[in-house]
Amino acid sequence: MDDQVYVKVLLYAYPHLRELADASEEGARIKAYLSFRRTDTLDCAERVAREMLAGGILRGVADELDGIVQSLDEQERFLLEYKYFRRRSELARYPEEAFSGSEREYFRRQQALVRRIAYLLFVHGLTAQRYFEEIGSIPPFPRLYRAVQQGRERAVVPKRGQRGISFAQNSASGSATGAFLPRSRMNTVKPMTATTRQTSTICSTEGVSRTSGVSALPGAPVSTER
After folding, report:
1. Which of 129, 204, 211, 218 could staple 155 via S-S, CB 3.0–4.6 A?
2. 103-123 vs 3-13: helix axis angle to the nearest 10?
3. In angstroms, how far is the first alpha carbon of the chain from the final one?
4. Residue 8 has what pLDDT?
5. Angle at the Cα of 189 (from 188 to 191), degrees rounded to 5?
6. Bridge partners of residue 172, in order along the sequence
7. CA distance linking residue 159 with residue 115, whole number of Å
8. What share of the chain is helix, strand, coil (3-state, %, to 5)?
9. CB neighbours of 162 closer than 8 A, spacing ≥ 6?
10. CA distance readout (Å), 5 to 1, 105, 194
11. Are 19 and 188 in contact (CB under 8 A)?
12. CA 88 to CA 39: how far, in whole Å?
């Protein structure tokens, strides 16, 4: 098991954790509302409890990562924003010279930053063991973990647009499709409450991944991601 994989998964998911928590809790509320349609009420109650618990866990992890990110210096936050978070409004806040150096230096800094984040997560008690016990089975984290583990990170995040880093000898700008995580709360929650016909079968689904569509596995080619 590569401990850095779970760290990268949490970084990619960080901007969307509260949206995923909202989706999980909304799904639990709908299941509870429609529980009278089910003959196996115990099973439905367990599904409701699991999704409510998942929402609370994801919200707590978001709070912990908020503190970690804020403890970093400006260039470290830029590197995380550039590679993992991809929030265009946040990237626009940084000057063009937010990072200066060679491409080799860029990769070295990113690797060092992942190691530092891993240490800070450990200090906060968010170890690999805790990740797998509390977070790893919550949709869409299993597929997200596999994508990162298999080197398909470019399938995880949205495009950066035109913003890129100018290196000493060349330039690099990213492109990606991003099919694992929601881009807005509306995209996450709307499918859960679309019509009565859709919600009538919610108790028989397998959780947020089936109702929100955030865990569709893309067929992106393997590539090196900056």
Report:
1. 218
2. 90
3. 23
4. 96
5. 90
6. 165
7. 25
8. 65, 0, 35
9. 173
10. 8, 21, 35
11. yes
12. 47
Assigned domain for 12 exists: yes
> Hey, what amino acid is at 146?
R
- 171-172 and 165-166 beta bridge pairing: antiparallel
162-217 pLDDT per residue, tens = 556 656 554 444 444 455 565 444 444 444 444 334 434 334 444 433 334 333 33
d(CA 26, CA 17): 14
Q: How many domains does the chain have?
A: 1
- How far apart CA 14 and CA 31 sit, in angstroms, is 26
User: Would you state the structure tokens that stand for residue 99, as one six-digit string?
Assistant: 């990072």
Dump pLDDT digits (tens) for 69-101: 999 999 999 999 999 998 888 888 887 777 878
What's the CA gap between 37 and 41, in Å, rounded?
Answer: 9
Structural domain of residue 123, as residue ranges?
A: 3-212
79, 110 Cβ separation under 8 angstroms? yes
**DSSP bridge pairs for 119:** none
Contact 131, 10 (CB under 8 A): yes
Nearest to 215 by CA among 137, 150, 128: 137
- Amino acid identity for residue 214 in this structure: V
Q: What pairs with residue 171 in β-bridges?
A: 166
Q: Which helix (H) or strand (E) holds 172?
A: strand 171-172
d(Cα 123, Cα 157) in Å, to the nearest integer? 27
Q: Retrieve residue 225's tokens.
A: 């991601």
Q: Is residue 222 part of a domain?
A: no
In a domain, 225, yes or no: no
- Domain membership flag for residue 50: yes
